[in-house]
Amino acid sequence: MKTLEQFRLEGKVALVTGAGRGIGAKCAEVLAEAGAKVMVSDILEKEGNAIVEAICAAGGEAVFQRLDVSNEEEWISTVDTLVKTFGGFDVLVSNAGIEGINLVEDIPVEQWRQVMSVNADGVFLGMKHAIRAMKPGGIAGKGGSIINMASVTANVAFYSAGAYSSAKGAVRMMTKVAAVECGNHKYGIRVNSVHPGVIRTELLEASFVNFAKKGLYPTPEDAEAEYVGMHPIGKLGTTLDVAQTVLYLASDASDFVTGAELIVDGGYIAH
Fold first, then answer.
1. How far, in Å, CA of 246 to CA of 113, rounded?
2. How far, in Å, CA of 258 to CA of 271, rounded?
3. What single DSSP character describes residue 199?
4. Rg, Å, the chain Cα set
């Protein structure tokens, strides 16, 4: 077998959450390019449908499904629709997430709960229903790969990101527990997390502006310069950097990888 064939995803069915823009959109595009049939899910219907159109225009196969990841009933419906539409469920990329920028002393409890609901509860619900579908006897039943989008903020303290960091820390440990459980029960399901550093997205650009508005940095440009300086590699990451890591974990090339946290951070936590 040729080595690069291990990275191909023909015959596999993938669900990507938060895929209307940013990292999720690029993950959906890369998985489709590698041959997977992809369900693009998001609460952003216009943006999600645009990603589907782009994938199909490039020769891939994709559909859109609206999904609020904090709603368990919508997860149940989405997984059922995925299997009925494409005939299987092999890859879950739990990417949907929101940010909350505040010092711990200033975090409104409503913000804390919202961030936890999307970033932690959403990943938990995705794993729960993906495992039920993928395991032997499930509606897909062939095993699979679950990839949870965490963050370097799950590994090191990050200024003004108390709620976000806490949620991503929960994702990090939930991933490991699920990996061990799936392994012990011989489900044929691998569960891993991806930990990006600072990735250039629309959400990040908005965060730089928000930092300045809150007085945490003098200007958005000052915020960006400091964030670039946090990475020894000397630049911010791209959505493609993360998506290519996700492709590895989705593919048979990572067949012996589970319970791992793949750091994609330009050296951020190395110093």
1. 28
2. 26
3. B
4. 18
The span from the CA of 8 to the CA of 19, in Å, is 20
188-231: per-residue pLDDT in tens?
999 999 999 999 988 788 888 988 888 889 999 999 999 899 89
Note the residue count of the chain. Answer: 271
d(CA 181, CA 191): 10
Q: Is 238 exposed, middle or buried (0-12, 13-18, 19+ CB in 10 A)?
A: middle
Task: Report d(CA 238, CA 80) in Å as an integer.
Answer: 32
Q: Which two tokens stand for residue 144?
A: 């699979």
Task: List pLDDT tens digits, range 26-61.
Answer: 999 999 999 999 999 999 999 999 999 999 999 999
Look up 248 and say whether it is catalytic.
no
Q: How far is the C-alpha of 43 from the C-alpha of 96, rounded, in Å? A: 9
Three-state DSSP class for 8?
coil
Tokens of 57: 């225009």
156-176 CB burial, b ≥16 within 10 A, e <16: eebebbbbbbbbbbbbbebbb
Per the CB < 8 A criterion, the answer to whether 72 and 125 are in contact is: yes
Q: Determine the Cα–Cα distance for residues 264 and 27; give it in Å rounded to an integer.
A: 14
Select which of 159, 164, 187, 248 is catalytic: 164
